[in-house]
Amino acid sequence: MANNKKKNQSSAQQEYQALQKKRETKRPVLQNCIKAFLIGGLICAVGQAVQYFFIYFFNFTEQTAGNPTAGTMIFIAMLLTGFGVYDRIAQFAGAGSAVPLTGFGNAVISAAIEHRTEGFVLGVGGNMFKLAGSVILFGVFSAFIVATIKTLLTQWGGF
Fold first, then answer.
1. Contact 96, 32 (CB under 8 A)
2. CB contact at 8 A, 125 and 119
3. Which domain holds residue 142?
4. 144 and 157 fall within a common domain
5. Domain count within the chain
6. One domain for residues 92 and 151
7. Taking a C-beta distance cutoff of 8 angstroms, is the pair 100, 43 a contact?
8. How far apart are CA 149 and CA 155, in angstroms?
9. Are residues 61 and 90 located together in one domain of the fold?
10. At residue 67, does pLDDT exceed 90?
11. Is residue 59 domain-resident?
12. What value does the mean pLDDT take over residues 47-70?
């Protein structure tokens, strides 16, 4: 397929492609993967510490500590985004900061900050869930489907 595209290009296009390939900066893929892994792991370790905090100081169980831990991690990410710290972390870590739960908080608050000049209702409220709205929608829909399947299997299969 690549050879067919090359055959259909003019000589000027082929020269440009060769020049582009020669001038393109090489990305340090392995280094970026290591940074993403380490920062993502650090964020998850902080989340685990927050969960242990709720278990130790507030007598939550492991199952019940999950929701306040998620809320706290989202709040921390939103706070760090508001102060401009999370953006620097994301610039360094790449996908390592976007994948955990904190990436969701960053996406929500970034859109809200970006559109704050348009007002609270149309700016912040209207644009805050542009990116995160689809995540919430598919999360709720997936949970509904899984719960429906589990209920049907429990009713009919005796699981």
1. no
2. no
3. 132-159
4. yes
5. 2
6. no
7. yes
8. 10
9. yes
10. yes
11. yes
12. 95
Backbone angles phi, psi at 3, to 5 degrees: -70, -35
C-alpha closest to that of 103 among 88, 86, 118, 116: 86
Residue 40 and residue 113 in one domain? yes
**What are the tens digits of pLDDT across the range 121-147?**
777 777 777 777 777 788 889 999 999
> How many C-beta atoms surround the C-beta of residue 22 within 10 A?
7
Cα angle 142, 100, 89; round to 5: 150
Q: Phi/psi class of residue 94: alpha, beta or left (left: φ > 0; alpha: ψ in -120 to 50)? A: left
Q: How many helices (H) and strands (E) does the chain have?
A: 9, 0
Please check whether residue 89 is in contact with residue 80, taking contact to mean a CB–CB distance below 8 angstroms. yes
Which tokens belong to 6? 């090359």
Single-letter residue type at 100: P
- 18 lies in some domain: no
* Residue pointed to by tokens 């997936």: 142
pTM: 0.70
Would you state the structure tokens that stand for residue 18, as one six-digit string?
A: 């060769």
Hey, what are 59's tokens? 């007598």
Euclidean distance between CA atoms 73 and 136, whole angstroms: 17
